[in-house]
Design goal:
Largest sheet: 8 strands, mixed
Strand order of the largest sheet: 3-16-11-4-5-6-17-26
Radius of gyration: 27 Å
Helix content: 25-40%
Number of helices: 16
Distance between the termini: 54 Å
Number of strands: 26
C-alpha cells in the first residue's frame, strides 16, 4: 500500500505528513510508521537501494543512463548518490488544529520551487525518493557562496543551454553545440524578501572569462584557462567549462557571488509550460519566424510544449531581430509563467502539482548544495515569501561593440551597468515596496540627519576588513592629510572580512559619525549605533571597519538608490504585448 492508500486506510490526511516545526517555523516531512510497519510503507515495495539510481533493482533491469537522462546533458554533470532519509521516529504526535484551505495554499505561494515541492505531500517516502532520483547535480567548484542563508539576500544563477539533447529537440539550437549559456538570468532576492530583480545577461556580450578550477570525475581538480574578449555564452560548455565557470564569470562582471545555480535545457520550457496547462502571452503584431518555427497572429494566446519553446527562441521577427529582443520575449514568458504558477487554478490542482514536481526535478540540473528535495524545499519556501508584484526583470545595459564595423556583438555600457550592479549588490529594489519598508528605510536614513562635529573632533579607529592590502593605512593617510581628521588611527586587519563597510559609534558620538559619513560618502545603513572603544590615549573612539564595498581612499561608498535612466524593465505582475 502506498502512502496515499495508507492515509485513506488509517484516516490520515497525506497532506498532514508535512508538519510545522514550532522551533524553525518551517514545514517538515514527518513519516511516522504505524505499529507493525517498517519506515518504508507498503509490503510489496522494495526499499530504494543505497547508491540509488545507478544500480538495477532486484528482478529487473534499469534503463541505461543515455535512455533515461538524455534530455538534460550539461557539461560536467555527474550523478549524485541518492541519500537515504533518516528513519522517522515512532510514536503518535498531537493533532494540529486544521487550517483553512486558503491558508494551506498561501503557505506555498511565491517561488516556483515551492510549487514543485508541495506535491511531495501526497506521495510520502516513496515519492520523496522518486523525486530525489530525478535530480542531477554538478559541483559548484568553490564559485558559490556555499549556499543560501535565511538571514541575507539570495542570488541564484539560472542558465538555459542550447544543447540539442532530448526527444524532439534536433531542430533547435546549434547542431553539435557543447551546450553554451544560451539564456542566463541572475535572480537576486532581497534580504527582507520584499522584492527581487531578475537580471538577464546577453549571450552575445563580449567579456573576459576567468580561469576556472573544475572538479573532474576522478575527484581531481583541473584549471580551465580563461579567455579574453569572447562571447559570454562561451562561459558554459566551451573547453569543457561547467556551470561553476559561468558563476565565476557573472561574479567578475557584476561583483555578485551567486549562492546556487540551476541549469535547464529545451525540455524544461516544454514540460513546465504543459504542466501548468499553458502560458498566456500577448503579441502586438503577427509573428512568422521560419527559424524558430513560430507562427502566431496578433493578439493573446495560450502556448505550451513545442510552441512555448519556439516562442522563447524567436528573435528574427520581433523588435530589432536580435538577442536583446529575444530576451524581452523570454522575460514576458517567464513573468506569465510565474503568474500561472501562483494562481489558484495551479495550487489547488493536485494533478498539475504532481506534473510540476516531475517536470521541475527532471528538467533542472542544480549545484550539489541543493541536490536534495528537502534542501530545495527550504530554498523554495524562502523564495515563496516574495510578493511577485515586486519582482522586476531587467537586462544588463549594453551597447554595440565599437570594434565591429557591422555590429553583431555587444559590450557593457558602464554608465548604466555600474549603477545597476551597485543597486543589486546593495540590495536596492527596482520596484516600489510596501510603506512599512519605506518607513524602515527612512528611519535608517535619519541617522545622517542632525548636527555634524568638526573634522578635528572626529575620533576614529580604522580596521581593514576589505581583503584589499593597505586599505586601512591608505584611508588613515587620506583622512589626516586631506580631511583634517587628525584624531584617527589604524589598527590593521579586522578579526574577519566584511562585505560592507560599517561605522560603530556610541550615542554621544552621533555628530562625529555623521561628519565621518559625510566625508567618506558612507550610506546610512553603514552607521551602526552601539558602543565606542578606547584608543591608545584611553579616549573613546568610533570603530570604522572597511568592507568589500571599499573602492579606495577618498572614493564614496554610497551606492545609487535609483535605477539609471533608460534601462529595460519588465514587472512580473504586468502583461506586456511583444512588438
Amino acid at each position: 500500500m502506498d502512502a496515499q492508500g495508507r492515509g485513506r486506510a488509517e484516516n490520515i490526511d497525506p497532506a498532514d505528513q508535512w508538519v510545522l516545526n514550532p522551533t524553525t517555523g518551517d514545514y517538515e516531512l514527518r513519516l511516522s510508521p504505524s505499529a507493525g510497519q517498517s519506515a518504508v510503507p507498503g509490503p510489496r515495495r522494495s526499499a530504494p537501494r543505497k547508491g540509488g539510481r545507478g544500480r538495477p533493482a532486484p528482478g529487473g533491469e534499469r534503463p541505461r543512463r543515455d535512455e533515461r537522462d538524455e534530455h538534460r546533458e550539461v557539461p560536467g554533470q555527474r550523478r549524485r548518490r541518492v541519500r537515504e532519509p533518516e528513519a522517522a521516529t515512532g510514536g503518535r504526535r498531537k493533532q494540529r488544529p486544521k487550517k483553512s484551505k486558503g491558508k494551506k495554499v498561501l503557505m506555498w505561494t511565491g517561488g516556483t520551487l515551492a510549487f514543485l515541492l508541495v506535491a511531495g505531500c501526497a506521495g510520502g517516502y516513496l515519492y520523496y525518493q522518486h523525486l530525489n532520483d530525478n535530480i542531477t547535480s554538478i559541483d559548484a567548484d568553490g564559485a558559490s557562496t556555499g549556499g543560501f542563508s535565511k538571514d541575507r539576500a539570495i542570488n541564484i544563477l539560472v542558465m538555459g543551454t542550447d544543447k540539442r539533447s532530448g526527444n524532439g529537440n534536433k531542430g533547435y539550437g546549434d547542431e553539435g553545440s557543447v551546450g553554451h549559456a544560451d539564456t542566463t538570468i541572475l535572480l537576486h532576492v532581497s534580504k527582507d524578501r520584499t522584492n527581487a530583480t531578475a537580471l538577464s545577461i546577453p549571450r552575445d556580450m563580449i567579456t573576459d572569462i576567468p580561469d576556472c578550477p573544475t572538479k573532474q570525475d576522478d575527484g581531481s581538480t583541473k584549471v580551465i584557462p580563461g579567455t579574453q574578449n569572447v562571447r559570454f555564452n562561451e562561459s558554459l560548455g566551451q573547453n569543457d567549462r561547467t556551470p561553476s565557470c559561468t558563476m565565476r564569470t557573472v561574479t567578475k562582471i557584476t561583483g555578485i557571488t551567486p549562492d546556487h545555480f540551476m541549469v535547464a535545457d529545451f525540455n524544461a520550457v516544454k514540460t513546465l509550460s504543459s504542466a501548468v496547462g499553458g502560458v498566456d502571452v500577448c503579441l502586438a503584431k503577427d509573428i512568422d519566424d521560419p527559424k524558430s518555427h513560430l507562427k502566431l497572429p496578433k493578439g493573446k494566446h495560450t502556448i505550451e510544449g513545442e510552441e512555448a519553446l519556439a516562442f522563447v527562441r524567436t528573435r528574427h521577427t520581433v523588435g530589432q531581430g536580435g538577442d536583446l529582443s529575444r530576451i524581452q520575449l523570454q522575460q514576458q514568458f517567464l513573468s506569465s509563467l510565474m503568474r500561472k504558477l501562483s494562481s489558484g487554478d495551479t495550487l489547488t490542482n493536485p494533478k498539475k502539482m504532481i506534473e510540476l514536481a516531475e517536470a521541475g526535478t527532471k528538467a533542472l540540473t542544480v549545484d550539489s548544495e541543493i541536490d536534495d528535495i528537502m534542501k530545495l524545499k527550504d530554498l523554495g519556501m524562502e523564495l515563496g515569501k516574495l510578493d511577485m508584484k515586486n519582482l522586476t526583470f531587467t537586462t544588463v545595459p549594453v551597447k554595440d561593440n565599437p570594434a565591429e564595423k557591422i555590429p553583431i556583438t555587444v559590450v557593457l555600457d558602464p554608465p548604466k551597468s555600474d549603477p545597476l550592479f551597485a543597486m543589486m549588490r546593495n540590495d536596492e529594489s527596482l520596484t516600489e515596496v510596501k510603506k512599512k519598508e519605506k518607513k524602515e528605510k527612512a528611519a535608517v536614513a535619519a541617522r545622517l540627519k542632525g548636527p555634524k562635529a568638526d573634522p578635528s573632533e572626529v575620533r576614529v579607529e580604522i580596521y581593514n576588513g576589505s581583503e584589499k592590502t593597505g586599505a586601512a593605512q591608505a584611508t588613515l593617510t587620506w583622512l589626516q592629510n586631506n580631511e583634517g581628521v587628525l584624531k584617527s588611527s589604524q589598527l590593521g586587519n579586522a578579526p574577519s572580512d566584511l562585505k560592507k563597510t560599517t561605522l560603530e559609534y556610541a550615542p554621544d558620538q552621533a555628530d562625529q559619525a555623521r561628519r565621518l559619513a559625510d566625508i567618506m560618502g558612507l550610506p546610512a545603513a553603514a552607521l551602526k549605533p552601539g558602543k565606542s572603544e578606547k584608543n591608545a590615549q584611553g579616549l573613546p573612539a568610533m570603530k570604522l571597519t572597511l568592507g568589500g564595498d571599499f573602492k579606495g581612499a577618498g572614493v564614496p561608498i554610497t551606492g545609487p538608490s535609483k535605477a539609471p535612466e533608460g534601462i529595460q524593465k519588465v514587472e512580473a505582475d504586468k502583461t506586456v504585448c511583444a512588438k
